[in-house]
Amino acid sequence: MKFSRLIVQLLLVVAVITSIVLSFFIWTNTARYQRGQNIDVSSTEANKNEIPMNQVISPTSVIWHDSTDQHLIYNSNENISISIQKIMQDWKINSPKLVSKKNGAYYQKLIQSKDTIQMVYPTAITTGTLGYLLDNNSLKNEKSDQFNRILINLKNKNDQNIYLANDNNYAVYKAKVKNASSEPITKLVKKANINLRVRLNLMKHGVFTFYVDPIKLKTYSYVISGKQDGEYTTALFDSNTNGLVTSEDNGVYTYNYGESKRLVSDHNTEELTFEDYTDTSVPKTQLAFLQRGYQKIINLQNSVSNLRLYNANWKEKDLVFREYVEGFPIFKKSQFGSIRIKFSRKGSTEHFLNKVLEVPVPSDQASTRLKSTTEIFKGLQNVGYSPNDVQALEVGYQWESETDNEKVVDLKPTYYIKIDGHWKPYDEWTNESAEEE
Question: What keywords are assigned to this protein (predicted)?
Fold first, then answer.
C-alpha cells in the first residue's frame, strides 16, 4: 500500500511540473502554439498567404428564417457563410435583373421571407466582385450593381433564383440559378451551435437586427502579438533600409525614406500610420479597390484569419477591416477598427495597430447575458436619444487589456451604438449596463 501511494504521489508531482512547464511556454513563446479552438474560421491557423480573399471579404452574419421565426446562426466549428460560398461556386448563376428599388414595403417583405437563408455582408459589394469571389464567369463581367445581402430559398423548388439586396437603397436583384440544391445548406443550418432569435426591422438609417430575447454570449481571452518597428520598415519600405532617417518625440517614432515613404509608430498607443507617396494610382474599379486593400492587409499582418472587411467607401476610396469572434465584430481596439486603408492621388495611407489576436486562452469569466434590443432602445430613449438618432447598432466584443498582463486581452460582449458618426458601447451613451439584471 505504501509503495502504491508513493507511485501516485510521484505521478502527481510529474503532472504539476508538466503543467507549469507548458504554461511557461504558452506565456513566453506563443508562436509555438496554434489556435486551440476555431473561433471564426473552419481551418486551423494557416500562413497568411493561404487565407483567400473570399474569406476576408465575406458575409459575417447568417440569418435563417424557418416557418415561424428568424434566427441569427453560427457554427464555431465550421463557418457557415464561407461553407455556403464554397457550395455556390458550383452553381451556374445568370446575370442579375433589377426587381425593385426604393420600395421599403417590398424590401421588408423580402428580408422577412420564410424558409430562407440570408448571408449578410457588413458593407456593400458589387455583383462583379461576387463573381470574382465565387469564380463565377457570368457575374465577373456584370456592371457595378451593389448589394450586401444574399437570400436563398430553402424550400420553394419553383423559385430557382437567388436574390441580392441592398439595405442602402432597397434595391433587389434576382438571378436565376442552375445546378443548385438547398440540401447542403439546410444541413449546415442544422449544425449551428449559436442560434439567437432575431427580427429584421427597417428604420430611418437602414435595416437593424433586433435580438428579440436577452442573449447569452461567451467572454474570450486572447494572447496578442506584435512586431518590432524594424519588421514593419523592412516589409513596408521594401528596399534597403540603410537610407532611413529616424526621429523620436515622447515615444512617437518616425521613419522617413527620402520623401517617398513615412512610417509613424506611436509606442504609447501602439498605433501606426504608413504613408506611401509613390502609390498615387487610384483603383479604377471597385474590384481593384478591394483587391489592393486585401493585398495590403496580408502584407501588414502575420495572421488575417479573423480579419473581415467591415466598411468599403468607394466614393472616398476608404477601407476599414475589423477582427471578428464568433461572427461578432471587435470594437474599442482603436477608433478605426483593426486596419484602415485610404487611396488618393497624393498616395496611400494605412492605419493599423501593433496588436493582433493570436492564441485563445482559458477565461475564468462567466458568459455575459445582454438585454434584448428593444430594451436597449428604451434605455437610449430614457437619456434623450430617439430611434431616429441611432445610425447603427450591433452586438460586438469590447477589447479590454488586462492590467496585470499586457500580452492578454479580454473580449467581452456588449451592444455598440453609432450616433452622430461615433461608435460607443451602450454604457457610454446611457451610463447604464447593457447586461440583463
Answer: Membrane, Transmembrane, Transmembrane helix
Radius of gyration of the chain, Cα coordinates, nearest whole angstrom: 24
Residue 417 cell numbers, joined: 451604438
Q: At what angle do helices 127-134 and 286-300 cross, to 10 degrees?
A: 50
Task: Tell me the CA distances in angstroms from 48 to 84, 144, 288, one per residue in order.
Answer: 22, 29, 20
pLDDT at position 47 is: 56
What is the number of H-type helices and E-type strands within the chain? 11, 26
Helix (H, G, I), strand (E, B) or coil at 256: strand
Task: Say which amino acid occupies 242.
Answer: N
Reported confidence tier of residue 427, pLDDT bands at 50, 70, 90: very high
- Total residue count of the chain as it appears in this document: 437
Pairing of strands 271-276, 307-313: unpaired
Helix (H, G, I), strand (E, B) or coil at 159: coil
Residue 250: CB atoms within 10 Å: 7
Quote the pLDDT of residue 396: 96
The three-point CA angle 46-51-53 to 5° equals 175
d(CA 185, CA 81): 10
Whole-number pLDDT of residue 315: 93
Is residue 83 a contact partner of residue 128, using CB atoms and an 8 Å limit? no
Mean pLDDT for 228-232 is 92
Q: Where are the alpha helices (DSSP H) in 154-210?
A: 183-190
Encode 175-207: b = buried (16+ Cβ within 10 Å), e = exposed. bebeebebeebeebbeebebebebebebeebeb
Confidence check: pLDDT of 240 > 80: no
Residue 24 confidence (pLDDT): 44
Q: Number of C-alpha atoms within 13 angstroms, CB side, residue 108?
A: 11
In the predicted model, is pLDDT for residue 20 greater than 50?
no
In whole angstroms, how far apart are CA 205 and each of 118, 138, 328? Answer: 20, 33, 20
Give the type of residue at 274.
F
Query: What letter represents residue 174's amino acid?
Result: K
| CA-wise closest residue to 273 among 317, 335, 329 | 335
Cell reading at 143: 456592371
How many angstroms separate the CA atoms of 62 and 157, rounded?
Answer: 21
DSSP string, 44-57: PP--GGGS-HHHHS
